[in-house]
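Possible regression after last week's pipeline update?

I re-ran a chain I had predicted before the update to compare outputs. Posting the input and the new output here so someone can diff against the archived version. Not blocking, just want to make sure nothing changed silently.
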Amino acid sequence: MAGNVSSPSNNPETTADNVTPLGQANASAQPRPAATDGPEGIDLAQYTDHRGFAGNDNPFDDGGVEMLLDLHILLEALVEDGYISQRQAEDILIAPRTKRELSMHPLEIIASREYENRRFGNKSLDLETLTLWLCARSGQDYHRIDPLKINVNAATEVMSYAFAQRHNILALEVADDYVVIATGQPYMVQWEGMLTQTLRGRRIRRVVCNPADLTRYQLEFYTISRSAQKAQESGMEVSGITNLEQMLELGGLKSPEANDAHVVNIVDWLLQYAFDQRASDIHIEPRRDKGLIRFRIDGILHHVYELPSAVNTAVTSRLKILGRMDVAEKRRPQDGRVKTVSQDGTEIELRLSTLPTAFGEKMVMRIFDPDVLLRSFSELGLAGEDHQRWHNMTHAANGIVLVTGPTGSGKTTTLYSTLKQLATDEVNVCTIEDPIEMVEPAFNQMQVQPNIDVTFASGVRALMRQDPDIIMVGEIRDLETAEMAIQAALTGHLVISTLHTNDAPTAVTRMLDLGVPAYMIKATVLGVMAQRLVRTLCPHCKVEEPVDKEAWQLLTRPFRVKQPPRVYAPKGCLECRDTGYMGRVGIYEIMPMSEKVSGLVKTEIELDELRKTAFGEGMRTLRLSGAQKVGAGLTTIAEVLRVAPNSQDL
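New output (post-update):
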């Protein structure tokens, strides 16, 4: 029955009737030590009590036999190791195969049944567990594929796509003296002899990986590499206008067109890849002779791919077309937006921004997840007393509420989430933004357009004639905008806006620096909230560690805060791509303008005294808010210290 099941390997030379002793088929293969440790230090010995398959204890010793692991062999071994019952194995063998299953790895077919893991109990027998078991049984090393750590260009140059697909292998790392090759068939080695001839003396290091990941990234890596190559072959010409140091190349052909099928494939792959990796920003950056693609994930930039310069320009042009931007204009910054649908049907908005640089146009795409508007404040990290203070400020009938923080600190998410809750059928919510970050049907959104004299100040002036209840001003940048916001607040409107300051108390000094009279600040400002985003620990792999007393004191200084009984540290697993972190959460510093705090607002303000008074009124610093998240096991001391400014000594 097992003979009717197709193997993922399409190599006609490796059939059951054509097995060869390894010593003859692959004289260059190096002896493999038994794999004892898996990812994150997992002892692979716990996954099996046996070595080898079908009586072949160590296929990499002299005289070992090359063998294709089929469904029958694997099921027999799984029964032997106590993962499934004999009845379950028989059910899988006699079940008819779908067309898709005929091309799947045997482990994928077994994992699709979602049987209970009889060996460990209370766990599903998933593909990852089966892969670890295969590593333990075959004595080979396990490798989890992290696409962000792979040099795709170098990996795809090791072998052709046809060769990789035929032998079901994929290059993961290319070093000066070795190449790491992943496979889903640990006992198939004929390809090693053929590949060694082209590696110029490099050794082959075999690893076993998840067969589903192997198939997926094999297709993705070669598709994007082939598309980039084909697009480049269509011609290359780079205008000297966009490159300050462009070298003259005679006989150049035309650049790849933005609508070229290969360029379209690259853009489609780029967007889907960013969605899969949970990226918040995509950076497409031109360099002298190439283009770089980087993703910002959980606040950290990761190098993803390199494109030839001409292809990089074509990709940027394609995105400008999608964003309804002027493709011919390359000398000045432009803004645009794109709305797309991911493979799971989720609508995702992207804000596009271009910038002319020395070597061409740099593009940054900010990805907005619409689900963020559906999150509660507790999910955003705003809870307890801070949430109550924010609720009181934003539910006032009139006044100004300010949110401060640098770019990328989550201000937009906070504003949109707040407005989403305030935008009921009984109120009129209007916004003036530059640009509109996310389109929300519950708001009346207006965009700044300086080319036709639509500024924040003129926008607020126009909105005041639209009978608004709540006005959101994207940013208070100048005195004119500040004066219009104050006028709106004084005439009975609630105004919510942002400032770029390090903490909440300095927002008052910023308003004074703009030229706003102190008495106007006292009369209109209801409160200020500063915020940052810290990476949250992966709930699947975080580990407990002792509290570093000195680090805790540095975090909470100058306050005396009781040390938590335990804290957690990042470790790394499949779910978080071995980073130890997954997602981000906000830390907040909220300063309501109480009577005592307002009394200190004057032209010659003493910032330290204002801050001290605010602490006395219940304000907690960003670092104290972070310390609360550390004590709750959500993040680490080091992460809070990285993003939160120093607390001032009192």
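Follow-up from reviewer: compared with the archived run. The longest helix spans residues 211-233. Marking as no regression found.
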